[in-house]
């Protein structure tokens, strides 16, 4: 899975300021009174955020379904002399040897969970492996973004080394946004290799997210729009959720 995509992912996401994403996570830890040491990142991809967090002193575990993504992540972390544990598992059915202080799942990876029962399962596993009092922080592409901004649109980029076309369709009945991506990656001389990827994200309402969190016994602390602590607006493109696994004494 994602074999060709792993080769070009970092190039396509070079505009993502992972330092700012890490700043947001650290600010959220501080805002909600936590100082995690061991942090699990679900759907870590090529490890850019895990690497940034490791540079800041966190013990990181990166988990992803794609072997090729993880291979790239391991290569990047070794180049920087970092010791990060990368695990090849599906976040819908992951296992750890112990618990962690915090769990993060960023860059709309939750939207890739297209079945609501699977979403609840992910949240339940987070609850299982999260230490009492620990934070679970994730973001989603909003229903507005998937159904109004991406639906039916075509995006593209032309470059000497790699060009891509991104076509989106949206099924309102299933609330599924399908991304059809076609890449042309330069190999040598004037030769290009063509490969295709299909990605599907599900639009979740706030009610669906909060209900799944409640069923998993994760307490919603707050939700924010963008990499800050402002409340989401109706036309918010990305929403961040901050949740906590309550300690037993907090329920007494």
From TrEMBL:
Domain annotation Methyltransferase: ranges: 39-134
Keyword Methyltransferase: yes
Translocase found in the keyword field: no
One example GO MF annotation: methyltransferase activity
Biological process, per Gene Ontology: methylation
Gene3D superfamilies, A to Z: S-adenosyl-L-methionine-dependent methyltransferases, Vaccinia Virus protein VP39
SUPFAM superfamilies per record: S-adenosyl-L-methionine-dependent methyltransferases (SSF53335)
Keywords of the record: Methyltransferase, Transferase
Sequence intervals crossing the membrane: none
InterPro entries: Methyltransf_25 (IPR041698), SAM-dependent_MTases_sf (IPR029063)
Protein name per the record: Methyltransferase domain-containing protein
């Amino acid at each position: 899975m994602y074999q060709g995509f792993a080769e070009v992912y970092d190039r396509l996401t070079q505009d993502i300021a992972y330092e700012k994403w890490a700043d947001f996570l650290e600010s959220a830890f501080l805002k909600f009174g936590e100082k995690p040491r061991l942090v699990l990142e679900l759907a870590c991809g090529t490890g850019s955020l895990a690497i940034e967090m490791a540079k800041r002193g966190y013990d990181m575990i990166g988990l992803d379904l794609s072997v090729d993504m993880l291979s790239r992540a391991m290569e990047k972390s070794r180049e920087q002399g970092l010791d990060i544990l990368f695990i090849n598992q599906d976040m819908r059915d992951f296992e750890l040897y112990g618990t962690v202080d915090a769990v993060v799942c960023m860059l709309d990876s939750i939207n890739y969970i297209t079945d609501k029962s699977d979403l609840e399962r992910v949240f339940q596993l987070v609850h299982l492996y999260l230490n009492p009092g620990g934070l679970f922080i994730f973001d989603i592409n909003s229903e507005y973004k998937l159904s109004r901004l991406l639906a039916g649109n075509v995006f593209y980029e032309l470059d000497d080394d790699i060009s891509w076309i991104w076509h989106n369709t949206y099924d309102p009945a299933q609330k599924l946004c399908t991304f059809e991506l076609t890449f042309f990656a330069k190999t040598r001389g004037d030769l290009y290799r063509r490969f295709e990827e299909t990605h599907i994200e599900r639009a979740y309402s706030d009610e669906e997210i909060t209900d799944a969190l409640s069923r998993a016994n994760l307490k919603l602390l707050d939700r924010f729009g963008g990499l800050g602590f402002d409340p989401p607006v109706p036309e918010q493109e990305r929403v961040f959720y901050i949740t906590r696994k309550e300690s037993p004494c907090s329920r007494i």
